Each structure stands twice: as C-alpha cells, then as structure tokens.
Amino acid sequence: MKFALAVISAVLVGSLLAADLPDAAPCDPTLCSLPHCRCTDTTVPGGFTAANTPQFVILTFDDGVNVNNMVLYRSLLSNRRNSNTCPAAATFFVTHEYTDYTLVNELYNAGHEIALHSITHQVSVDYWREADYATMMREFADQRSQIAHFANIPVNSVHGVRLPFLQMAGNASFQMMASAGLTYDITWPTNDYRDPGLWPYTLNFRSTQDCVIPPCPTASIPGPWVIPMNSWTDLQGLPCAMVDTCFHHPHGADQEGWFNFIMQNFQRHYLGNRSPFGFYVHEWFVRVNPGLRFALERFLDVVNNLNDAFMVNAKEVTDWVQNPVPLNVYRQRPCQNRLQTQCGANFCGPLRAPTADKNYYMQVCSTCPRVYPWINNPLGL
C-alpha cells in the first residue's frame, strides 16, 4: 500500500512539474560547469586538444534480447578488449516483450550495459509523442525495477533511456529521468552538428541542438545528460541517426563497401573534435546484411587496436565528460571490475496477457510472476 501511495504521489508531483514549465534560459558558461552542468557544445570537455582526447565508440542494440539475436551478440562481442587491455563493451536498450531475462543476465555478466527501451514499445508514434510524465514513469522507471528483478542485476547499474522510434516527448521523459535518478538519454538525433559533432550536455539551460523529431525539451531540467545522436552521412549525403535508417547504403553483401562507409563516418569524428562516435543499430539489420556483419567485426577490430580509441558503454562516456582527463591518463586507469550476479533460471508460463487474448512464456532469473508483467504491473504480482 505504501509503495502504491508513493507511486501515485510521484506521478501527481511530476504532472504538476511538467505542466506549463517555463522555457530554460540561454546557457551561461559561467553558471554551468562540470561535473553537473554543461552547455550544448562541440568543444572537447576539459579543453583538451583532439589529439589528447580519447575517441569513444558507442555500439548500441535495441529491442528484446532472445536466443535469435544472442547468436550475433556472442560471436561479435565475446572477449573483445580495447588497447588498454580493458574489456570492450556495448549498450543494450532492452524492451520487455519477448525478452529472455536469463540472457540479459548473461550480457550484464559479460560486461555490457543494460538500458531501457520501454515496457510496451507501443507501435503508435503518437503514443510516444503525446506521452506525459505519468506514462514515462510507467514505461521506464517501472522498467528499471522490472529488469533488475527478472534479470537479477543491480538496479543502480541501469542508467540509460532510448525512446521507441526516437520519438521525442518534450519535457516528459527528462522529467521522468530526473525523478527516477536515471543518468542519460540517447534518443535525440542531430543533423546540423555532424561536423564537428556535439559532445554530451545537460538541460540545466536551453539546448541549441536542432529538433529533428519534435517535440524536444524546452525546460530547465537539471540532472539527466543528453548524449546526442550525431547523425551519420549516407552515400548520397543525407543524415541518418541509426545505421538501419541510412537510405543510401552499400549493397547487403558488399563487405568492402560497408567497411568504407563505416570508416568514412568514423573518421569525421576521429580526425575532427573526437565527439563520441555512435554505431546505433538493430540486430536484425546486421543479420540480413552479411556484408555489414563482417564489416562491423572488422571495424571493431580496428577500434580495439587503436591506442586512442575505446569501445565503451554509454555510461562510461558520461562519466568521462563529467570528469575529463587527457588520453595518457585515461589509458592508465584501472579497468572497471563488475561483481558477477547469479541466475537461477526459471521457465514460466503460460502467463495470461493483461491486454490481449493470448499467453506468454518467460525465462527469468527469479521466481515466476503470477501473471504476465506489463505496464501498471511490471512485476506481474
């Protein structure tokens, strides 16, 4: 009962906060300084030269984790290390439906980051465009507890958010993140800041990033970090925020073409201001384009052998931005050690769906839920 009252209270407070929020003021660098504030900017945090700045590569995959896509994840990512001997890591934006939580536990224990992509992943873009604070709390704040429970991973290891279809929801998602203690969002594409690219920043003051998929946030919302999706440029010069949205790309089987395509976009960062290079993709797109599959592996091999580039999870990027150090210092840092978590696997089902006439089955690292977990009942109690 206390939990329910706390949730209702948080929703009511959030709704009041989200209503008629005044626009944020233009960013004043004298009032906005690290580690908790940064203006929208292409300059390197810490004032380092590009040559003295680590080039971060953020590889992300979206949607459910299951036995089909784990084949690629294992073959592509197992035992990868950066040149500083630290494990290379990817970030997985996980949806709930059809996710095997025992495999989420496996990814976590392999050193990868688990992040949020919503419980329902509604196919209606209008649903996400019009989502208010209460909806965001149910879809993401509740999902944080859901993933931690069913995958048996620490709740404080879940930091990031990506909204489905990259559909922004104005201030609501960032208000939710501030309330829920989430660290960063990677939903917001930028086409204008491709060369040089944007570095992560906060929303203490007004963002000057272009709004590609409105509505974008307008209020002052201290706390969450924006990791801008610096768009790629496709073969005809058009911007694309995710690899699978690049309209003009190499033929599916053209490994050399895909590799050159990836490297051209990477070098714009690496030879420029070293803003984080995002390789944002869905697993299915890599699977159906064998040339991309082998080119991606080849590209990651290149990154892992460069002494100034590092394949890291998204949270590690915000950590560095908050407390930037030069390349030679970063290379000497000890690797992060993560405590392994156990998974006593349970096969659950049939579990009745709350909104449709069908049953689900689940693999979890906990006791089985009573009903299929969903929005408003994320643990299936």
Automatic annotation (TrEMBL):
Superkingdom of the source species: Eukaryota
Keyword entries, A-Z: Signal
CDD domains per the UniProt record, alphabetical: CE4_CDA_like_2 (cd10975)
Signal peptide limits: 1-18
Origin organism lineage: Eukaryota, Metazoa, Ecdysozoa, Arthropoda, Hexapoda
InterPro entries assigned to the protein according to its UniProt record, in alphabetical order: CE4 (IPR052740), Glyco_hydro/deAcase_b/a-brl (IPR011330), NODB_dom (IPR002509)
Domain (NodB homology): residue spans on this chain: 53-183
Primary gene name: LOC128198652
Presence of keyword Signal: yes
Protein name per its UniProtKB record: Chitin deacetylase 8-like
Keyword Ribosomal protein: no
